[in-house]
Amino acid sequence: MKNISIQLKRMILSLVLFLSLFIAGSCDSFVDVPPPNSQLTGITVFADNTTATAAMKDIYAKMRDTGLLSGRSLGLSNVLGQYTDELLCYQTGINSPEPFFNNALDATNGPVLEMWNATYNQIYAANAVIAGVNASTALTSAQKNQLVGEALFVRAMLHSYLAGLFGSCPYITTTDYELNSLVSRQPKAQVYANCIDDLLQAETLLGPAYVAPNRARPNVFAVKALLARLYLYNSQWAEASNAASAVLNETGTYVWETDLNKVFLKGCKTTIWQFAPGTIFPNSQEGPTFIFNAGPPTVTSLSPAFYAAFEAGDQRQVKWTRTITSGSNTWYHAYKYKQGTGVTTSTEHSIILRLAEQYLIRAEARARLGELTNAKQDLNFIRNTAGLGNTPANTATEILDAVLQERRFELFTELGHRFFDLQRFGKLDIMLTPVKPGWNTTDALWPVPQAELLINPNLLPQNAGY
Question: Which of 2, 105, 244, 459 could pair covalently with 362 via S-S, beta carbons 3.0-4.6 A apart?
Fold first, then answer.
């Protein structure tokens, strides 16, 4: 018992040291919520719900500002839009989105390494919260459930994106540095299975209520929404349909918005989970990334081919894009988020999960199950909101093609949905080869950073093509 006690104390002190270092660089950070003595020392990190919660909130701040889910120019919403057929690139240099736009990544690419490291650091932080909370004797059961449930949700979400980008990848569930330094990659299907296991556990821990304003911390329905997506990615059609239905049936919390101009406002009730903004920028980071008011653009613009592909009368083209002209030149930009730089009033947050995706998940799952009438009903719900008539698709193949098309125009510039959809449908080469001169079949996965392979040869072999 004495040895166990010593080991527990060492683990807690290790977690405290890690969290203190991890959080020190954040504006909206752990240190902004001081413990009673105004210092974070010893085991006080997990001896008080305020500081333990602040540690979890700091992870969200890191996810918002760095790595895959950031709305900045090197987050997935921009780089995967450029990697596929949504966006054009106006930045240059190896540490800009340009190599993504040209489909010219290699194993030494700096932004890929940065995203890999930032994401695994965020996963490590989630694991530190899980271990620290579980070891705490001061937190109540309800407080532990909330924090562990959120951390499991974060761990699953981040790993799911890594699997989509890199294929097989490590699934990290510990803060043990020695173990993590020697970890091997797991097959993509196993990573998804691990994500689902984490989410099923989180589902038992989180409740239906949001514990933060503006849905800035996940509840059980955020867990179910992510489960629906991963069941779909894992070809578990019935489970995907049921999980999406569980969210869509929660009509007291989630209310459909027919005004497209209100969908990306922070108070919209179709939002399932979003990031709270930082203190410097009171709105989303996607707005400044995509919006420009004069040409030529400096960061990115919508592809003219993408803009022209909207059906006539599609109100998403009217409400969610904007045209900029200068003389004879015309450019288009994403206009889902309408607040750019220099705005001091907070009206928009970065949305990570929203209700429209759940309708499209269920439509696809139902079509693959042969429930064609119900699949069309879900598909038409999205189309009608966009001002379009019912789909003419009738067969399962036609409906699935229609779902893919609808996802293209509903979810553009949102965290890389286009890439993951084409990947899942097996249509990356078909759709991108004609419009992307640098596209190769092996671009279906990103390279594992060479620096990581040198540190840990267990991550070999490198993905094909790199």
Answer: 244
The one-digit pLDDT tens for each residue of the chain (466 residues) are 434 344 434 444 445 445 554 444 444 433 232 333 333 333 578 999 999 999 999 999 999 999 999 999 999 999 999 999 999 999 999 999 999 999 999 999 999 999 999 999 999 999 999 999 999 999 999 999 999 999 999 999 999 999 999 999 999 999 998 999 999 999 999 999 999 999 999 999 999 999 999 999 999 999 999 999 999 999 999 999 999 999 999 999 999 999 999 999 999 999 999 999 998 889 999 999 999 999 999 999 999 999 999 999 999 999 999 999 999 999 999 999 999 988 889 999 999 999 999 999 999 999 999 999 999 999 999 999 999 999 999 999 999 999 999 999 999 999 999 999 999 999 999 999 999 999 999 999 999 999 999 999 999 999 999 9
Residue 137: which H helix or E strand, with range?
Answer: none
Instruction: Encode burial over 332-348: b for 16+ CB neighbours within 10 A, e otherwise.
Output: bbbbbbbbeeeeeeebb
Q: Between the CA atoms of 410, 234, 376 and 355, what dihedral angle is there, to the nearest 10 degrees? A: -40
Exposure letters 92-117 (e unless 16+ CB within 10 A, then b): eeeebbbbbbebebebebebbbebbe
Helix and strand numbers, DSSP H then E, in the chain: 19, 6
CB 322 within 8 A of CB 333: yes
- The candidate with the shortest Cα–Cα distance to 356, out of 400, 414, 287, 422, is 414
For residue 61, what are the contacts with CB-CB under 8 A and spacing of at least 6? 26, 27, 28, 29, 278
Name residue 331's beta-bridge partners.
324
Name, in order, each residue with C-beta under 8 angstroms of 297's C-beta and a sequence gap of 6 or more.
Answer: 88, 90, 324, 331, 333
Backbone angles phi, psi at 36, to 5 degrees: -50, -35
DSSP letter string, 282-306? SS-SHHHHH--SSSSPSSEEE-HHH
Q: Which residue has the tokens 């199950």?
A: 369
Contact 288, 296 (CB under 8 A): no
Residue partners of 271: CB distance under 8 A and separation at least 6: 215, 351, 353, 354, 355
